[in-house]
Amino acid sequence: MFKTLFLKEIRVDFLSRRVIMGLVLCLILIPLGVYIGVRDYRVRWQAYQEAVRLYQDDHKTVQDILYKGGGKGFRPPSPFVFLSQGLDIVLPNVAESPSTPQQKPPVDLRLNNNQGSENLYASFHGPLDLAFMVSVIMTFLAVVFTFSGVSGEKEQGTLRQILGNSVPRPTIILAKAAAQGVMLIGAFLAAAILSFIVLAVHGYALFGPGGIFAETALALVLSILAIGAFINLGLLVSALTRQAVLAFIILLLCWVFLFGVFPRLSVVIAQLASPVKSQQLVLQEKNRLRLENEKARAAEIEKIAESDSNTQEKQDEITAQYRAKLTEAFRVLDRDQTNRQNAQTQLAVNISRLSPVSCYIRPMAEIARTGLMQLELYRQDIGRFGAALDDKVYGQYKEFRQKSGINVGFKGDGSAPAPVFQPNRIRTQDIVKNVLPDAVLLFAFSLLFFSGAYVAFIRYDVR
Amino acid sequence: MFKTIVAKELQENIRDFRFVIAAFLCMIIIPLGFFINAKEYQTKEQYDRDAVRIYEDSHKRVIDVMRLGAAAFRPSSPLSLMSRGIEPLLPTSVETVGYITNWGAQTQFVNTRGLDNPLSFLYGRIDLSFIVAAIMSLLAMLFTYNAVAGEKEKRTLSQVLSNAVPRNTVILAKMAAGSLLVGVVFILGILLGLSVLFLMGHVILSDAGLFGRFLIGVAVSLLYILVFLSFGLLISTLNKSSLSAIVGLMVCWVFLFLILPRASVIAAKILQPVKSQQVIDIEKNQVRIQTQREEDQEVRQLQKTMPGVKDMDFRTFFSSLRNGDENAKAYEKKQNEIHDQYRAKLDAELNQIDALYENERRIQAEIARNISRLSPVSCFVHIMAELSNTGFAEYKAWQETGSRFTQILDREIADKFSVLRFGGMATSSGGNLDRTAPAPKIEYKPVRFHEVASIAWPDLCVLFIFGIIFFSGSYVAFLRYDVR
Amino acid sequence: MSDQLPILKADDLSKRYEDGVLALDHFNLSVPAGEVYCLLGANGAGKTTTINLFLNFIPPTTGTCYIRGIDVTKDPLEAKKHVAFVSENVMLYGNFTARQNLEFFAKLGGKTALTKEACYQVMRRVSLQEKAFEQRVKTFSKGMRQKLGISIAIIKDAPAILLDEPTSGLDPKAAEEFLEILHELRGEGRAILMSTHDIFRAKEIGDRVGIMKEGRLVLERTRDELRTEDLVKIYIDYMKSEPLIA
């Protein structure tokens, strides 16, 4: 009986124009989105390599860093941007140390995003990556495939006809869910296969070093769970209404709310509940701390310089103390800012998890290494680069103030190789840990919606 | 007859659940959106003011700027509650890079916004532009998708047309009634939203210019809603069943709202690829270094060959110069001439690089914009962004602000001192430079309305044309509609 | 009347809906094998409610329905194995052909190994045109759909058939053809319960005719009794009389 009903559902879908159109759309748009993402990455990777090459050609030694515009650390674009562009174009893509040679440590590398001018339009309208395709197109198709699953058959009279036979209701609803799942997820997987071909043609390997298997597998699983959640939501609403049109309208409003309104609201609620200073303000506060620290240090050095017990060692000791103080002050400021930001972000993420769409979009950005984990990692890498710059470059400036004047000199080895920024990669296991709660939630949504549809259908009035 | 049908349409729709949904959405989401965005603006504005205050406290004089660098900050737009536009990618400030030297002030745009609230970029914002573009357009379509097809299904259309009622009266009445309903509900939402802003003391209500733009934004929103009302009517007249009408409408909506605008960006990138800003910055830096190197070489050559000074060491030279030695002075004059030449050359080269890049970028943006105009949604969001000072006009204005800032720094500082090099040593002399003078500042000038209008008017025209096309289409289709 | 065990039996059946309407009021009915029982009544008399109760689409407030002795409420799946149903508006799956619809419903009815020819035979039996066998149902007229509906009932080979106003909207020729099929099915020993407005057809085909009013069976006549009585007059008199429930 299940097989009969299941096959009937598949057949009915295949003969339906909207389903065919939806499937074709899926098979065209998803590989196209992947192709575009891959091309986009190629362009950005070339730009990144060019920038790094130009920079490294000119900044081979410590002296080059001092006199040719300071040190820079470039964030590489993510090769998985075809999965989700995420925050790639708004996150900082370069960290720059001040280009004034006598910058005193601790050097505060400024995170900047200079991708703006080449991506203005992209920020207006958003990307056509896999995350968009699934969260918008596939979920919309799920609505289109399922809104008439129960109420449409009721209106048609065929539900009555079926139930006039010895067919258990659970079998019917299970067959519907299974059939729509197979259709949509099957279409999605077919599109994924085409996408893999696109990736292979562009030099992506599934396995081996640089292989994309883990990330794409995770993305596929998450996508299937998201699609499943919307299929079951569609069946639930269909089983709660008596008219297909009403079911469609309700689903549409749900879809708009879950996709468009709720995730945005969650960010805003978190912002209002847990405001965080702007980065600009933090930078200015750091500048002020630096100035105050420098003023106090200079005053104390001046006192020593006027005295008879003036030695380089004493001055170095005072300088080291003040630097330590400043480093600590920066650390506290950064830590507070990070804590507040994390609290705000976590609140937003938790609230947003009430929508299955949010449970999909944010983790996809993490999988694609274009999310908040990437920002955190970049900050850590920049921190290490900054420490190396302090150590090898800016910390090598020594000054000795005397009554007659001030002697400033670079005591380090100017011809030593310049510190190089080494970007790290987020480990796959960390990504899995991060996205697992959302994957579980998506599954729970699916289960919840299906249970609702099941119960609603058992009681459904077919007259 | 017209009035009768309009009245019937109104009565029928007011009792419909869709009207309840529309009223609920407008009365809740619009004021909520205003509240949220206004609060965010007020918070950001406070942070911006604090940042500027801290900066100004430590940058009171020219000497401070020379020591610490200079910056000019772009304030958040108070009209961003209408549209976030491209604000996440607009620079937050323009700042000097390195010391200001006799080569001029080197500035760059800085954008730290991505760190402020990254998730809001991932999920988007609930500004008026989004509410109207997404939610109101859906509501408009919901009100009209079954205006014709639904009446045909219920067989009331044949009932109506079995009377002496001209078809054009029927279609016009349907359009009028739909417009009235959705329009009234939207305006009520706006009024509620304005009340919220009034209670919050938002600056929009106290500035005539800002309020004027806001009203224009509301008017454009109404036009946009009308476009989608007529689109819904068109699809309804092209379908026999309301179900296929609404499914068809939704597919079109997804395409117009979500796919086409994004596809336009990609098409533009493919048709007109543009170098990254990173590469441009580095190329410019290389040109600077190269030019300075060349100048250095020429100066060394001058030092080796100029009679009277070629055999001097730096101590002798500078001492001679202090004593007014003619040869030393001649050398100084010649060196300054060489420097001026190279500086002019550098400026020209840098401007050329900038101009080329800006041109490529502008062409790419134009291509994207023109393709995206195939969707009324793009036209609408563009207009709203320009009105809100979060669009391309703002980007251009800020570019110009950056240029003016650089010019001011050059004029007030860089041009006022010179660096004299001899024998591996250098001295700088700021002949006219008053180090205790107030630090140069630049006032941010918001984009003027006529500039906004000049960028936005094609989009407005296209939006209007869409409305006419959709309504004309529905009119013609209805005149031929088979009511059986 | 036959005294064999009734295939369809309604025992003191009552149904009150959630809005308080009493759709059936202590309704009793039994239809043995080989009998056509016609339920006549105005709109809202309870005819469709009776059929819905037999099909377990709604639960009774009191009383029981039996199909071949099986309590429909207690064991609906088992009961439905013994009944076929033709609704007033046979819509089916518009994009399927007639044969595909027939095959599908036959499988639901337990006939899994049906050949194409067997399907064609059944459709021929109901006088559906040959060229319609592989045509999509959405192109069918109402009469063709009704024929397809009855062929679905036939192919199930169930001992009981429920028909809800099957001739409503059919032209006289189509209605006549439909009744001929019913006549054959009766001859095969099926118990047929048919609700209808059509007094003339009811008199023509019904072995017994029951008149319903306000949820009650107010009158029952056999074929023999109706030879001498004017069913039309009886029906109209009952419809015009005072309401049963104040």
- Which sequence of SSEs, written as H and E, runs from N to C of chain B? HHHEEEHHHHHHHHHHHHEEH
Give a quick account of the main beta sheet of chain C: strands, pairing sense, barrel closure: 6 strands, mixed
In spatial order, strands of the major sheet of chain B run 1-2-3
Largest interface: chains, residues each: A-B, 99 and 98 residues
Distance between the termini of chain C: 34 Å
Number of strands of chain B: 5
Strand order of the largest sheet of chain C: 6-7-8-3-9-10
Poorly predicted ranges of chain B:
none
**Protein structure class of chain B:** mainly alpha
Binned, the helix content of chain B reads over 70%
How far apart are the termini of chain B?
22 Å
Radius of gyration of chain C: 18 Å
Top keywords for this entry?
heterotrimer, A: mainly alpha, 5% strand, C: 246 residues, alpha/beta, six-stranded mixed beta sheet, 25% strand, globular
Map the helices and strands.
The complex is a heterotrimer of chains A (463), B (484) and C (246).
Chain A: H1 2-14, H2 17-58, H3 62-67, E1 72-74, E2 94-96, E3 110-112, H4 120-125, H5 130-146, H6 151-156, H7 158-163, H8 169-201, H9 213-240, H10 244-273, H11 279-306, H12 312-352, H13 358-367, H14 372-392, E4 397-402, E5 405-410, H15 428-458
Antiparallel strand pairs in A: 1-2, 2-3, 4-5
Helix pairs in contact in A: 1-8, 2-5, 2-8, 5-9, 5-10, 8-9, 8-15, 9-10, 9-13, 9-15, 10-12, 11-12, 13-15
Chain B: H1 2-14, H2 17-58, H3 62-68, E1 71-73, E2 93-96, E3 107-110, H4 118-123, H5 128-144, H6 149-154, H7 156-161, H8 167-200, H9 208-237, H10 242-271, H11 277-305, H12 314-322, H13 326-372, H14 376-387, H15 392-412, E4 418-422, E5 425-429, H16 449-479
Antiparallel strand pairs in B: 1-2, 2-3, 4-5
Helix pairs in contact in B: 1-8, 2-5, 2-8, 5-8, 5-9, 5-10, 8-9, 8-16, 9-10, 9-14, 9-16, 10-13, 11-13, 12-13, 14-16
Chain C: E1 8-16, E2 22-31, E3 36-41, H1 47-54, E4 62-67, E5 70-71, H2 76-80, E6 83-86, H3 98-108, H4 116-125, H5 142-156, E7 160-164, H6 172-187, E8 191-196, H7 199-205, E9 208-213, E10 216-222, H8 223-228, H9 231-240
Parallel strand pairs in C: 3-8, 3-9, 6-7, 7-8
Antiparallel strand pairs in C: 1-2, 1-4, 4-5, 9-10
Helix pairs in contact in C: 3-5, 4-5, 5-6
Explain what this protein looks like in three dimensions:
The complex is a heterotrimer of chains A (463), B (484) and C (246). Chain A is 69% helix and 5% strand. Chain A has 15 helices and five strands. In chain A, helix 5 packs parallel to helix 9 and helix 9 (213-240) packs antiparallel against helix 13. The longest helix of chain A has 42 residues, at 17-58. Chain A is elongated. The two termini of chain A are 22 Å apart. Chain B has helices at 2-14, 17-58, 62-68, 118-123, 128-144, 149-154, 156-161, 167-200, 208-237, 242-271, 277-305, 314-322, 326-372, 376-387, 392-412, 449-479, and strands spanning 71-73, 93-96, 107-110, 418-422, 425-429. In chain B, the strands form two sheets. Chain B has a three-stranded antiparallel sheet, with helices on both faces. Chain B has a two-stranded antiparallel sheet with strand order 4-5. In chain B, helix 8 (167-200) runs antiparallel to helix 16. The mean pLDDT of chain B is 88. Helices cover 36% and strands 25% of the residues of chain C. Chain C contains nine helices and ten strands. In chain C, strand 1 (8-16) and strand 2 form a beta hairpin. The mean pLDDT of chain C is 88.
